[in-house]
Specification:
It contains seven helices and no strands. The protein is an all-alpha fold and 218 residues long. The chain has one domain: Phosphate transport system protein phou homolog 2, domain 2 (Methane Monooxygenase Hydroxylase, Chain G, domain 1, Up-down Bundle).
Length: 218
């Protein structure tokens, strides 16, 4: 392969990692907005979503150009396919961040009820999973990727706990059902970010080992 092709591959890798860093920052900002019921920060997150969307489109176009011009094979082809898939997963995480921002904007306008679920632990695990999945990509480390996959069950457990406790809160204070539904949706959006981080880890396994890991029992 030519040096030009190698430079293009390296550029794509740098761009996907840059997008990953941007998405990590947005997830962190969303977690802080939830913690502090910060409507203004949440609104900024929602308005800045275009940055992730535009970058995702640019990366996909670059990958498609490489496929058309160079027709890569073997590990190079797997790399481009993996980048396209991870690129999509990162954009979808950005969508979940926007969803969280919209929920925070809603609850920030309303009086805080007696019960409020603490999402600190869940948000921390989700952020750790995303960071680990991107670290696995950088270092082509399947051991880290597998650790991400196992952490997903822990996030699911917290989401289920949130569901049970918020359901009880709705029964205790039905006049605040709108507020509590938004709390419940936050748990769902965080859980979906964890799912996307898991998908990224699975794509790293595919890149390194050449085997499709999705739907495998683990």
């Amino acid at each position: 392969m030519t040096k030009h092709f190698r430079r293009e591959l390296e550029n794509v890798k740098k761009r996907i990692l840059t997008l990953g860093s941007l998405v990590e920052d947005r997830v962190r900002e969303a977690a802080l907005a939830v913690e502090h019921r910060d409507g203004e920060s949440a609104e900024r997150i929602v308005k800045a979503d275009y940055e992730i969307d535009e970058t995702e489109v640019e990366i996909e176009e670059e990958c498609l150009k490489i496929l058309a011009l160079h027709q890569p094979v073997a590990v190079d082809l797997r790399f481009i396919i993996t980048v396209i898939k991870i690129n999509n997963e990162l954009e979808r995480i950005g969508d979940q961040v926007v969803n969280i921002g919209q929920r925070v904007m809603t609850i920030a306008k309303r009086p805080k009820p007696p019960f409020s679920f603490d999402y600190g632990e869940m948000a921390e695990k989700v952020q750790r999973m995303l960071k680990m999945s991107l670290d696995a990509l950088v270092n082509l480390d399947v051991d880290i990727a597998y650790k991400v996959i196992t952490l997903d069950d822990e996030v699911d457990q917290i989401k289920n706990e949130a569901y049970d406790r918020i359901k009880q809160a709705i029964q205790d204070l039905p006049e605040r059902v709108g507020y509590y539904i938004n709390l419940l949706l936050i748990s769902r959006h965080l859980e979906r970010i964890a799912d996307h981080a898991t998908n990224i880890a699975e794509e790293v396994v595919y890149l390194v080992e050449g085997e499709i890991f999705r739907h495998s029992p683990y």
